[in-house]
Amino acid sequence: xxxxxxxHEAFAALENTTxxxxxxxxYVTVNECANVVLAIGASPIMASEISEVAQMVGFAQALVLxxxxxxxxxxxxxxxxxxxxxxxxxxxxxxxxxVGATTxxxxxxxxxxxxxxxxxxxxNMAEMKTLAGLETKSSGxxxxxxxxxxxxxxxxxxxxxxxxxxxTGKEDVVCDGTHxxxxxxxxxxxxSVTGTGCMSSSLIGSFLGATNNPLLSAILGISTMSLAGExxxxxxxxxxxxxxxxxxxxxxxxxLVLEKARIYLKG
Amino acid sequence: xxxxxxxHEAFAALENTTxxxxxxxxYVTVNECANVVLAIGASPIMASEISEVAQMVGFAQALVLxxxxxxxxxxxxxxxxxxxxxxxxxxxxxxxxxVGATTxxxxxxxxxxxxxxxxxxxxNMAEMKTLAGLETKSSGxxxxxxxxxxxxxxxxxxxxxxxxxxxTGKEDVVCDGTHxxxxxxxxxxxxSVTGTGCMSSSLIGSFLGATNNPLLSAILGISTMSLAGExxxxxxxxxxxxxxxxxxxxxxxxxLVLEKARIYLKG
Amino acid sequence: xxxxxxxHEAFAALENTTxxxxxxxxYVTVNECANVVLAIGASPIMASEISEVAQMVGFAQALVLxxxxxxxxxxxxxxxxxxxxxxxxxxxxxxxxxVGATTxxxxxxxxxxxxxxxxxxxxNMAEMKTLAGLETKSSGxxxxxxxxxxxxxxxxxxxxxxxxxxxTGKEDVVCDGTHxxxxxxxxxxxxSVTGTGCMSSSLIGSFLGATNNPLLSAILGISTMSLAGExxxxxxxxxxxxxxxxxxxxxxxxxLVLEKARIYLKG
Lengths: 267, 267, 267
Hints:
Strand order of the largest sheet of chain A: 2-1-3-4-5-6-7-8-9
Enzyme class (chains A, B, C): transferase
Family (chains A, B, C): Belongs to the Thz kinase family.
Shape of chain A: globular
Mean pLDDT of chain A: 95
Catalytic activity (chains A, B, C): 5-(2-hydroxyethyl)-4-methylthiazole + ATP = 4-methyl-5-(2-phosphooxyethyl)-thiazole + ADP + H(+)
Radius of gyration of chain A: 17 Å
Low-confidence stretches of chain A: none
Binding site for substrate (chains A, B, C): 46, 195
Number of strands of chain A: 9
Oligomer: homotrimer
Number of helices of chain A: 11
Distance between the termini of chain A: 12 Å
GO molecular function (chains A, B, C): ATP binding; hydroxyethylthiazole kinase activity; hydroxymethylpyrimidine kinase activity; magnesium ion binding; phosphomethylpyrimidine kinase activity
């Protein structure tokens, strides 16, 4: 697939369908995730009561599961919603926030991977190495890892888990087991705002709800956030940067991505 | 009641009393709701632990219940707080977010309506049609409904539920069973930010805590949000728009509402 | 200790160590707390699942407990995390939001004080009088108290609880049982934004994670917020003020604090 030929289509699909993106996500960045979904032109619904999630996800075009502040109840709701999504062919994104940090997170993600078929999994290098069963120097939710072997780890994981793997870092790697891309946009300032990772996953979910194309959606979700980070106003401080980021995302379009995104086919 | 003669009084009451508005609300827009209450000059308190809500609501001048991310526990807390509010004559607002979407939401709202006397219920057309027992084309929390029969639905519901009904949409309708008003302010951009509906309900609660006048409060809560939406800066994107919205709400006053609000008595 | 000679060291320590600050906090201002921790140069982790908090806090350099929307489950998680932090010598900050308002809050804080050794407790006058066993005119989470006896209350509490006490108000008082300081910066506008108190506690936690010096951290956490409030743009309304506050915090540094902070040794 020549990704670039599909970018106009993807943005048009978003505009034409306004897909509903069901989230079961953390309480830290949930408002940001809802707003980023609106900013890109999709529609968010957050619902995590176990007795309603299977019904709710039936209205959605994609489901985003994020374990940032997961607890035993929300993991059960994620399993319930994920199984219902799978049964109805609704694509599912996983953001395994800080999966390596605690036994609870590792076991919860293991259950999610066992019971749910994911279309895209996005995380940082420490999270992805944990999924790959490799040693990490995790400290909570930030990654301290060397990123030079991202490509081979992504390829291995994509094959093992049979889904698109997106590893975000200085350079991002997106791989579907057959093709791999590196994405070379972004700005350090994105690390100074909470939730830019979570929001990237929500953007991936938004494109996925519009296109049902996991590889394209992972690339566009991440590129949208990275480009917005490059373009946003960094002169006044992190408050203004955060607001400018939303401004830029709400103005993002296919032409801008085609002009500025540095997306390279690697294998 | 000639609504317009009471607008100065309502803003003055807010300023003189700084009413405390107890919320049991969703975790997506809860920060926005707290800030909007502060912006209009009231004081927010969010508390949802079932063993404390009855005691907490006793300090409040109004209670706002919003089921956006309700779960079985928070519904019990809402019932507990609502009954305590009723017993003490503290007015209660209901925002039945996405009530038509799931069985859990329908049953929860049915219990709330059975056990609590509400002063104002605010929702979109799909939510209100669900309350009225009518067919809807609900898709999660957004309304896809024709809004031409809003007036008759509001009138019917206001009589049936014996409270003020506020249906927000392109035009808003507010009705107390006797009098009905249409409100013709607002801006499409308000739909591009999460929580403008929730915030309208919190503004209604704020005016209600200051005036104990449900009809006036519904009109002023909605008009404040609509006017702020008209006046807010839409040139830079949705990040700036959201911030500008809070700026405008914090500068709202009776004279501005009297000058710009298009409030029409309909019956 | 001459506080001022340590201010450059404290900011340098933050920059050199990027301490991880574990929060168990309320769902209203949690995003603000995460962003303020990033703005000052530390790293936030929010996790409240009881089965993981003891493990998670082991990665952290400080723990912040905030009871703003505590429930029976989160209090158990706070106890678990606090005990683990104590066992590993990780300093703990308590923000007893609205402790006087309900029996649940009073009993929960009593349990926290019994089982956990705190380095800093920060609250408003009503909260601190409640901790001191004095009568209050509490109304929810805002303080209506006379603040003239803050110094003696802080001194008494610091000795009784064997920790640094910080009472924030028009003037702030910080006391470690031996030395007491008054802090005379700040701006009324800080009361028009939700979470400035919570954020002050998170800033204290950030400095504490970097320096392990409770008295210095309480002074710097509060002074950072107060100075940012003085410097932030108040001309456009509370939306812009809130954003400007984050801009100012992210630009805060030792020289600015030394130039502008009014910190007075009182005893």
